[in-house]
Amino acid sequence: MPLPEVDAVVIGAGAAGPIVAKELAVAGWRVVLLEKGRWYTAADCRKDDLRNQRNATLGYPFGPEEEGNPRVFVDLNGRERIVKPSEPGYNNNAFCVGGGTLSYGAMAWRYHPNDFRMRSTYAAKIPRAFENSTLEDWPISYEDLEPYYEKAEWEIGVSGDVSGDPFKGPRRRPLPMPPLPPTREHEILEKGARRLGLHPFSIPMLRNSVPWNGRPACMRCRWCVGFACEVDAKNGTQNTVLPLALATGNLELRTECSAKEILVDGRGRATGVAYFDRDGRLWEQPARYIVASCGAIESARLLLNSRSRLFPQGLGNRFDWVGRNLQGHTYTGANGLFEEIVYDDLGPGASIAICDYVHGNPGLAGGAMLANEFIRLPYQFVSGIRDPDVPRWGRAHKEFVRQAYRRIIPVQGPTQEIPVFESRVTVDPRVRDKFGIPVARISGYRHPHTIEVSEYMAERAAEWLRASGAVKVWLRRAGRGVSGGQHQAGTCRMGKDPKTSVVDPWCRIHDMDNVYVVDASVHVTNGAYNPVLTIMAIAYRAGEHLAREGRRA
Amino acid sequence: MPGRRAILYDLVKPKKGGAGLKRRTFLAGPAAAAAAACGRKPAPAYGYRFLTADEVETLGAWVDTLIPPDEDPGAREAGVVHYIDIQLTRWFRKHREDYRKALASINRWAAARARQRFAALPPQAREEMLALMERGEAGRDFFPDGGKAAFEMVLAHAMQGFYGNPRHGGNRGYASWKMIGVPPLPVRGRQHYTAQETYPEKS
């Protein structure tokens, strides 16, 4: 059933969609924002260790719902299985207003200038990183994005102190809020890092360290990453740009609406979006511009499901690049056991980082930021951290947990992945979701060089822990399967050449006038850091450009 | 500061044996008798939703072998059987048959090995059996895969029930959180407080 035409439909209210919607609404555009999930608030915070976005033992609280939203996962041996959201292989991020930003850990990293030029930096020096890979430069630079990083830091709200990081790109303004006071882990690791001649500093976080923007400061509880903040001190799109956009009166947010496809007319121009509401009714929302901001897996799925006579392979897919280069981050690191108690129960836990190994590692392409981990809730600790010399159960294991829970510091980092063409999202020919829409099918592997870099990073983490006084250290290594998950990226690559990319530097699909993809899908590479601030910066840049250049009714 | 102690987890303080055992006998006796008298349809034990009295007894011994009582409560006392029982009517529905089979099989295996029910075996004998299952070396007549799948399932669920949030029926009285020395859930809006205020420092 067709509805009145609007200037733009934005699909997906995650890290990027509300920013684009806000830029357009403030400029006077009439905008509809479609979101598959619901709108949760601080009142929906349940401090449930077994049911949160980082531990789905008893399901995900912020979506998707366990039934009716399957995906297909193909493992390294080519065996495929249908997976539900809480099962391994699903590669879930949240499905709700705010998306991952409602419940994330909220690290607010700018990528390193060299993260945008991986080919130029490493092609001559490290040829093996380019074998069977699609490692490439971005068509835009750190300098292009710098003003928008700043805008995200000030408009969404970041605390921290990066003045001690000598490796960062140039910046014009400091962060708007100071860091939270250091934790015991921070003090221990700071000494160790200085001993090694490294450069530790306070992690930038999208979290209020002081009352800010009408909301209170972090109360430092341990239920942070994976949870909605009980006092609303964590800054996501749902409590910053979205209220601003709604206040203009130009934005309509429709929750529990699942996009089916982008509709295209006989001349190759998109005319609107077909979507199902919560009762399963099919609607058509006509619009002059369409913005897909569903995350790297779902945006690719939406484009691939939007097939028509002119675009039989889906939108933007003339050269078979949609869904390719799926990447996330390869987390590796080490756990260090200390004699003294290192745990002080001060959230969010993650506090100190070093960027000494982001680039310039001998014989390697890329690297990772290293930081101490967020607070490990007891079951998370038990299921994820064990001295390899201790049995998995019985009296000895219980004694280990009793003594070691407050004496272990994990250090880890997101190794920048070498993108692979065969790691990809397609739509499954048989399996459909509860609306009958073909589901995402995820397959592929990690590039061998990614594993090599991640091993090096684990060794560096171990070194840091030993220098900080750990009496025993063991490594955390990576698997070889395809990665995506909360840091999923890369499936609609940004580029200048339509034959080797999906969108142009302004996030517009190459052979379409009025369809944009704005989320981590456009990342050419995914940086050596958590990606959310880059997603936000790209959204500000693309939104501002569209508001300026686009023609509304 | 009580922090600097010789560590590396040596088990220097075995619990004086009695208490745990007595509790088990007390619980198991009447329950088993009631189950035997109960006829053939599996009826949930009193206070349980899915598990029968026999199963409650067997599973209690199983999880207590995985997380035994010592100076702190073991898995059974901390409500792990309740956690699993509740979830078998909710999130673990798909595991209902797995539990029925695994709990019956381990008792048949115990009978074949020692002419005893699993729960009546001394802790060491139970540990031996579970260790065999962990390696997939349990009797194939009782577990076609050597017991691996059943072992992993119960181990994961026991850890969840013991160390997870008490709202799901396990970790009764914050048993495991007290054991490791972290405070319970904070009161909404209250500023941070230290662990020492809530429980005495463990050393």
Describe the model.
- Chain A has a domain at 1-41 and 61-104 and 236-326 and 419-441 and 482-553: FAD/NAD(P)-binding domain.
- Chain A is built from ten helices and 18 strands.
- In chain A, 21% of the residues lie in helices and 18% in strands.
- In chain A, helix 1 (17-26) runs parallel beside helix 5 (241-247) and helix 4 packs across helix 9.
- The longest helix of chain A has 20 residues, at 448-467.
- The mean pLDDT of chain A is 97.
- Chain A is globular and about 70 Å long.
- In chain A, strands 1, 2, 7, 8, 9, 10 and 18 form a seven-stranded mixed sheet that branches. A seven-stranded antiparallel sheet of chain A has the order 5-6-12-13-14-11-17.
- Chain B has 203 residues and is mainly α.
- Chain B has one domain (18-198).
- Helices cover 49% and strands 0% of the residues of chain B.
- Chain B has eight helices and no strands.
- Chain B has helices at residues 18-36, 53-66, 80-88, 96-114, 123-134, 148-163, 175-180, 195-198.
- In chain B, helix 2 crosses helix 5 and helix 3 crosses helix 6 (148-163).
Features:
heterodimer; A: alpha/beta; FAD/NAD(P)-binding domain; 7-stranded mixed sheet; 10 helices; B: 203 residues; mainly alpha; 49% helix
How far apart the termini of chain A lie comes to 21 Å
Instruction: Please give the share of residues in helix of chain B.
Output: 40-55%
Q: Low-confidence spans of chain A: pLDDT under 50, at least 5 residues?
A: none
Radius of gyration of chain A: 22 Å
Estimate what percentage of residues of chain B fall within beta strands.
under 5%
Most extensive chain-chain interface: A-B, 46 and 48 residues
CATH architecture of the domain at 1-41 and 61-104 and 236-326 and 419-441 and 482-553 in chain A: 3-Layer(bba) Sandwich
Q: Helical element count of chain A?
A: 10
Overall outline of chain A: globular
Order of helices and strands of chain A: EHEEEHHEHEHEEEEHEEEHHEEEHEEH
Mean of all residue-level pLDDT scores of chain B: 82
CATH class of the domain at 1-41 and 61-104 and 236-326 and 419-441 and 482-553 in chain A: Alpha Beta
| Tally of domains of chain B | 1
- The whole-angstrom Rg of chain B is 18 Å
Poorly predicted runs of chain B: 1-6, 12-39, 189-203
Q: Separation of termini of chain B?
A: 10 Å
* Oligomeric state: heterodimer
Proportion of residues in helical segments of chain A: 10-25%
| Topology-level CATH name of the domain at 1-41 and 61-104 and 236-326 and 419-441 and 482-553 in chain A | FAD/NAD(P)-binding domain
